[in-house]
Amino acid sequence: MAETAARQRSRFMAAAFIVVLAVVGYFVFTSGSIGNTATLLTGTGAHRISVEVADTDDTRATGLMNRESLPEDHGMLFDFGTSRDVAMWMKNTLIPLDMLFIRADGTIARISRNTTPLSLQSIPSGEPVRYVLEINGGAARTYGAEVGDRLHHPIIGTGSKLSP
User: Fold this and answer.
1) How many helices (H) and strands (E) does the chain have?
2) pTM of structure
3) CA–CA distance from 99 to each of 5, 26, 61, 125, 145 (Å)?
4) Residue 107: is it exposed, middle or buried by C-beta count within 10 angstroms (0-12/13-18/19+)?
5) Residue 141 located in a structural domain
6) Beta partners for residue 123, in sequence order
7) What is the per-residue pLDDT across 12-26, written as a single tens digit (0 to 9) for each?
């Protein structure tokens, strides 16, 4: 009987450990700036993109600088807090990027394709936008992204930043 109680306790502890790991994993992947998924809706379908959210002055200033690569179907979603004219650049950015300038409602206003690594040239939004999605150079073409297509993400259209 003591052996059975010990086994039950062991199973209970293992199950509790798994539940704790699941809860911790949920919060790690749904809060903060890593582990978020955006969905880009284009004429070719729905494309899931893992995004880091840059929603502070520091994270927006650093962006994707000094990274030697960006995994396929990954990107950085910049949230400027309000709609305004924005300009991006490629200072200290080592990889070519596509930049999707996105209105507050999630529609794409402009796409700058295959930007030049390390360039200091200003890349303007062309109109007030709230978000910019940076993805690997050429990915916008692969996804079939065009002006007017839409990006869905928990922060888009809510008027607020992510919360756990």
Assistant:
1) 3, 9
2) 0.76
3) 60, 29, 15, 9, 11
4) middle
5) yes
6) 88
7) 655 544 544 443 343
